[in-house]
Structure formats: C-alpha cells, structure tokens
Queue: 2 jobs
Job 1
Amino acid sequence: MSDLQTVPARRGKAVRVKKGQSIKIINTHGTQVVDFWAFVDGQLTEYTGMDQSRATWTRLFPKTGDALYSNRRRPLMTLVEDTSPGRHDTLMAPCDNERYGLLGWTEYHDNCKDNMHGALAELGLYVPYTPASINLFMNIPWQEDGTLSFDPALSKKGDYVILRAELDVIAVMSCCPQDILAINSQKPVEAHFEVLNQ
C-alpha cells in the first residue's frame, strides 16, 4: 500500500502496518494534532506505552531514532524521520467526552477516545480500554515548577513524521477535535497518511 489516505477532521482511522513497513503521517494544513496509538496485530493487549517510552528515552518526547515502546517494553515503532519542530506530547490523555464536559461543553463532543475505538471497529476489532496516546504535533510546554500549558502546535503545513514498524502493528490515528483550547490553532482539519513499503 502506498496511496495517500485521509484521516478526516474530527475522526479516526486505523490501518495495518507490517514489520518493516513505515507509516508517514502528514500534518496537511499545519497545526493539527494527531493522536496516535499502535497495537500489536493479533495481540491487542500490547500497545504503545507512554510511561514505558518516557522511562526508556529519559525525555518527555521522542527524537528521530527513538522507538515507541510497548506496555511490555518492546519497541513497536521507530521514529525514522520528523520534519516538524519535533514537539510531540506524551503527557496528556486522549480527549474524551467527559473532558469536554469539564471544559464547559454540555452536549456530546467528538473526541479522540471514541475516534480510536471507532477506527478499530472499522477493522472489526475491539478493546475494553483506551491507552495513552502519543499526541503528534501537540505542544504542551512545561515549566520548572511543574506547570503545563496548552499552546498552539508548532508544526507547519506539510510537516510529517515517519514511523517504522518493528512488529506487525495496527496504527490508529485521530485528528483531534479539540476546538475549545487553542492547541490546533484553528478549527480541526483533516490529516493524511501513507503506508510505505520501505
């Protein structure tokens, strides 16, 4: 597979990526956060673990050459290229409807949790949990006193990351629907991805 595919605005998409293949995730318009998960194909209880990854990197976000480690501490995908400023968030949970309630929204709001489960369902898959995501292109600055802030993404139009699969995985992406905080700098828009054979 090498055709450009769409992650619709405010929605999710999942795709199988075989060991040795890569996925290129493109911030088509710039400043769009894309929540990302990888599950081991055929063994969905193993998935990208942000706690385990941070402990291995000894950093809050990955750099080129770093692997995303699983909750069983195995490398699942390796960040082989990143044309963005490199700021990706591993601290914030994927948004859910309850999060928007805390922000004052009183009706249902599209969210990354439901997008992840919906994307898996399109492949006929189900998991009873929502792992922490790596929030690609999301800019969460931190201060020495521990303060965090939700700042606009630093990525520009056309920035992308390429992640190489170290095992057969199911890659899941959500174009974050956050339109209350300023993380997307604009209304949520679509992103694109491509599965690369090398």
Note: The helical segments are 50-57, 97-102, 112-122.
Job 2
Amino acid sequence: MNDRPTAPMKPQSQSQVPGRIDPMSPKPDHGEHSYKGSGRLAGKSAIITGGDSGIGRAVAIAFAREGADVLIAYLSEHDDANETASWVKDAGRRAELIAGDIANPAHCREIVNKAVQAFGRVDILVNNAAFQMTHESIDDITDTEWDYTFAVNIGAMFRITKATVPHMKPGSAIVNTTSIKADTPKPTLLAYAATKAAIQDFTGGLAQLLAGKGIRANCVAPGPIWTPLIPSTMPPDQVESFSRSVPMKRPGQPAELAPVYVMLASNEASYVSGATVAVTGGRPLI
C-alpha cells in the first residue's frame, strides 16, 4: 500500500519496557479495519504470546476473523491486552487473557494450562513474545540482561512448546517469530540477535521431531516492523532512521505480517514445516 508511513520516522522514545501503543506516532496498523477473514481457521484454538500489541495483536485479530478462539499471553500491558481481546470478541470468538513473565518457567506452564482449560485443546501455538535492548558496547550488557533475554526469547519458547505439544492433534501448527537479525545480526542488538538465530535452529529441529505426530513447526522472520518494542528499546535517533536500510524504505506494519501467520497455521500449509518465511521489505535472508 502506498499510504504506509515511510522513513524517516518521528523521533520518539518510551521509558517503559515493554512499550505501549498509545504514545506511538504514527499508530501501528494491526489490521483492525482492514483484515477480512474467510474461515481458514474455523473451529481452531490458539495461544499467542506477546498478543497484546504489535505482531501479536495483528495475528490475534486475523486468527479471530478466520474463526479461531485465542488466548492472549502478555507481560503487564493490561490496557493494550484488553483492547486486543475486544477485537477478538468483536469477531465473535472467545478471548482469554493471562498476564505474567514468561521468563518464569512455571508461568509458561500456566499459559498452556489456562488454554487447555478454556478450549479443551490447542491447535495453534504462536511463540511471539520477545525482549530486546540496544547497547553500543558489550560492556554495557549485564549478565542479568543477557540471561533474561535468552529466558524470554528462547527459553520460554522451549517450555511453552513442550507443555503444548501433548495437547495438540495431527494437523496442529506451531509458528515462531524469529527475525531478519538471525541472518544479519545487528551489533547493537547482540543478545536479541543471538536468540533469534537460536529460534530459527530450534524451529528447524522441532519440525523434524514433530513430523511423526503430524504437527508442523515454522517461523516468520520479520524485518523492521513498527511496534511498541521500537520506541521503548531504541534511542530516538535510531527510531528516526528505523527501516531506512530496507529496499522499501519504510517500516512494515503488524497487519502486513498477519496473513503469513494465518497461512502457516492453516491446513493450506499442510506440507510446509521447518521453513522460515521472510517478511522484510525487500531485504533477502542470507
């Protein structure tokens, strides 16, 4: 679409991590007024981590309009999460909310237990929640932050997936969010990029482990996407130049990711497993 905001973006920052949608300028497009469903996920149930905003919100809206009930797991952004849930309910589907830190292994299992109690099963798992911080020097990365980044981005993915698989039937799907940074790591996002590479390898191995169960596993590799993670974890000058390096010269909107998650979750992707789908504004993966 030609009316998408282009770089340079308005310099801005948020002091709270994770960020919120309301202070962002311009507001991200999650497909609230554009996504049209066609029953591709009718009768299915899904878990989406980081479902309060950004890519997670866009996926929740799309899944609901395709006919799926959705459990939205999030950290503490209650207003954003409740708004996402309202969009799911507007589509005529059930929305369940659970707040908490997925760095805590016990909370990972609580997420799955709540979904199973609510829906009776899990057909789709979207491991999307992530943490990042920007640093100019490795000296600025503390042991605590390094460990926390891995706990949220890859440790929780393992634990939530492990807890979910016993409740999945043949035909179920797992979609993990990696990043273009897995292939082209940005030095100022050292810990984040390392976890995203781990996610890509985790997904490839997982697809092989679960093939015999009839469960597929794939990942999506976004490029620069306009979400609250950007102004809350990057200095204003980097927010301003955000996405200038991609051929399309603009950040992607969360709504532009959602159709890929729908495809990978649907029966139309029955022979797609172990894949990484790039949504990067024209920059190829290596």
Note: Helices lie at 54-65, 78-90, 105-119, 143-164, 190-210, 229-233, 236-240, 258-265.
